User: Which sequence fits this backbone?
């Protein structure tokens, strides 16, 4: 049973560029959430996708956008990169129906903005 | 809004010592509570969870009990190993779908 996978593992960009991160959920899961984890901090919720729609959004600017595909995989896009966007980006998947559904995390994508 | 407060780290213990990492929360309603562990250079792994008051989550020798009266979910292990060295995150999931995390507690276990 494949777990949550993310690509790429590491990425280096310069300020002002755009980046796309990818996530494939755990088998049987239909919901994908994205989190940003700055160095030495806990993860912060960016947004969640279900049925190809953004279901909930955290306190992140519109430069952060996403997409979910019919096979439940997801992309996170960040435009006009800032130095402060350097972080570990974590994808988590879950099955929406269960009220106490547990989110399972991927290994993350380490983004460095120079 | 919902929030989680964890004890400040880092925590350094000798092998076979007793571990407690304190976690308290603020939430409306009845959240689910979680402990996640992050090993160096990796993502988060679910360690244990509890979904209602007085539930005890346990896994790999770790335990935590959902205490509604004290709004706490402290993590404990009777005898830590070097392989337990990692960062531990307490988290809650309330009425919304997002997880709210504490800042994490770094644990180092020395042989």
Assistant:
């Amino acid at each position: 049973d494949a777990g949550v996978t993310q690509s790429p593992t590491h990425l280096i960009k310069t300020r002002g560029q755009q980046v796309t991160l990818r996530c494939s959920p755990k088998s049987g899961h239909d919901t994908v959430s994205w989190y940003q984890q700055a160095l030495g901090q806990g993860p912060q919720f960016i947004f969640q996708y279900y049925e190809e729609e953004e279901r909930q959004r955290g306190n992140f600017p519109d430069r952060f956008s996403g997409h979910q595909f019919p096979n439940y995989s997801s992309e996170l896009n960040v435009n006009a990169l800032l130095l402060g966007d350097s972080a570990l980006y974590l994808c988590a998947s879950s099955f929406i129906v269960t009220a106490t559904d547990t989110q399972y995390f991927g290994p993350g994508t380490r983004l460095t903005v120079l | 809004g919902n929030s989680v407060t964890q004890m400040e780290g880092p925590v350094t213990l000798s092998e076979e010592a007793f571990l407690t990492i304190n976690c308290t929360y603020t939430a409306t309603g009845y959240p689910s509570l979680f402990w996640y562990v992050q090993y160096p250079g990796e993502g988060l792994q679910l360690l244990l969870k509890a979904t209602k008051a007085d539930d005890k989550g346990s896994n790999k020798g770790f335990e935590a009990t959902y205490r509604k009266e004290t709004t706490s979910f402290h993590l404990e292990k009777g005898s830590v190993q070097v392989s337990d060295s990692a960062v531990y995150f307490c988290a809650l999931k309330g009425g919304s779908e997002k997880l709210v995390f504490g800042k994490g507690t770094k644990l180092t276990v020395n042989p």
About this structure: Chain B has a mean pLDDT of 94.
